[in-house]
Hints:
By secondary structure, this protein is an alpha/beta fold. It has helices at 15-26, 56-67, 84-94, 117-129, 158-174, and strands spanning 2-7, 32-36, 70-75, 103-110, 133-134, 140-143. It has a single domain (2-174), classed as 3-Layer(aba) Sandwich (Rossmann fold), CATH 3.40.50. It contains five helices and six strands. Strands 1, 2, 3, 4, 5 and 6 form a six-stranded parallel β-sheet that branches. The termini are close together.
Amino acid sequence: MRVLTLAGSLRAGSLNARLLREAARLAPPDLSFEAWERLDELPHFSPERDIDPPPEPVADLRRRIQTAEALLFCTPEYIHAMPAVLKNLLEWVVSSGVCVGKPVAAWSASPSPEGGAKAQASLAHTLEVMSARVVPEASLCLTLAASSLDADGRLADPAQVARVEAALRALAAAGTP
């Protein structure tokens, strides 16, 4: 199963992007990962800008989502919500219908004790409104301080490794007919 990963942060060295790379390393062999890392290239969404053909980064994003068999989003939490740049990405995608019925895992990684639960809930709700098939067993919130990922970007806590592996297995199972 081809999984497209999308991190909701523009920050260099983003905890969420690093976690997605670790997920790719921990994934079962029946999952292959591709990261879409052009979030900072998306123009601000406005309905009058959503024309045919769309701006090139938007066309690329929609094409990659369309060809992926599943999606894995990982968002930070800013002011108890997903960041505006991730919401902007979703606004560019919604009218295309490329997420309809697609299995999706909604993750949040945050240094907060709740692991970004409010942002994750907001992301999952928005994806459901877009008719994506959010897989609850594949979705999770992780409390990660920078020290939770070692120098090589690997999860240091075996319990967190187990949660990530279980979520990835659930995503793989959701894509199996």
